[in-house]
Amino acid sequence: MATPMARSSGRAGADGVKQSFDRAEFRDSQGAFDYRVEQEAGAYFFDFIQRDTEHPIQGRRQLDYFIGSGAHARTFLLNFGGFLYESPVTYYSDSASWNASPGDAAFDYPNLTRPVLPGCLECHASAVQRIPDTQNAYASPPFREDGVACERCHGPGSDHIASGATMLNPAKLAPRERDSICEQCHLSGEIRVPKAGKDDQSFHPGERLENVVSVFVRAGAASQLRVTSHVENLAASACKRASGDKLWCGTCHDPHFVPSKNEKAAYYRSKCLGCHTTSDCRAPSASRQANDDDCTACHMPRNPPSDIEHVVFTDHSIPRRRIAASAAPSPDADLVLYGGGKAGARDLGLAYAMVGLREDNAAYLDRAFQLLKDAAAQGPTGADSLALAYLAQFYRDRRDDAHALPLYESSWRMDPAQSAVAAAIGAYWMQLKNVDQAVLFWNQALSISPALLLVRVNLAEALLRAGRSQEAQDVLRKALEFNPAFQPARDLLNRISK
Fold first, then answer.
1. What is the pTM assigned to this prediction?
2. For position 455, what pLDDT does the model report?
3. How far is the C-alpha of 336 from the C-alpha of 329, rounded, in Å?
4. Which CATH number is 416-498's, of 3.40.1160.10, 3.40.50.1370, 1.25.40.10, 1.20.120.450?
5. Residue 325 above 60 pLDDT?
């Protein structure tokens, strides 16, 4: 319970976090909003107010839960009617300060509608209580146990209680099954694609991760230092290449124990000396003494990761000497399965689609389109609802509605819990001037993910056409409850009011 993994989630204010809620203030990088974080009457809040305007947009949100151990950072979750969203404010331990959450620095407004997906919670909390057929709704509490608990690595205790079966010991598993337990959260790759019929809760200790998710990396690219790239970085090290399966996360890390600051250098030095000798170190004696014979100070330096600002992480590639951060990989490099093997058209097509859309990478999007067409041509065994949804989007972007709409409808029949698919079908019904069907599908999209603010504006426009002005205003006011800074909803509401 004293390890960072056990402290990686909980209710706001627990675990000493309240000590960092001393009316902290910061301004977003765009200079548009000021933020203040504070504790009041045993609860925790952040306020936001627009700058340099006569009638500023402002608001307050309660911080209900936290994720992150606090070793580097800790961010917070907003609860809106049982749906969870990531707060735009994060506490960074290294600088003991508050700032924008990762990915939010580019916004010039409070990003209050970033859904917390089950995959995020699965790596920070235990016994996540997701509500089916929604994107980010959870029971109360959203997880039954704080942090990463015993069953994440040792399997279900219920089996042990019921039959006396031996609890799983990762160290005694075959290498792939052993390593998969760590990889479920510490292997990010360039993108992770769930296997057809699998989701973030499908992996169980003792299985191979590749049976649940395909992890892709860029071919020929040096592994970037990311927040969850420990597995990739270690695989790139000379130590791992020489040791093979003998070296794994558990060689140096005991998940039940973390050495104190004063013990850390000697503790990890003893791990290095399990393979190396003191004569292997060629650093000048004065340098070694200055670092208290701390092997990690030279060979596992702490550097800024490429995906998050305001923090530094340990480089597990174990460089022989300090090196500059590796250059960004080539944007047209092939995506390949981590660990080798050949990916099918469905998995590889989704990988190119997800990375291509994230990076606006035209080359990747073209590859994705062709691969997903190949997968769809194989019939139900080649393309599932997710693959068809992406393929439909590509056709829609090409203004090929004759192909796009049937694919969206096929995807919806396979899985009617996709908010993006429901929203797209609603748009097609509106285009066909069938307002009732458009309203039906947009309401379905919002039941899955209620903070789709553009969908709310479209729904309000449809309700206005149907002569349902009061309903349209209610939909827009709900949008502004989610985010009072969403200008399209404000503009339309003002237009209706006049």
1. 0.92
2. 98
3. 13
4. 1.25.40.10
5. no
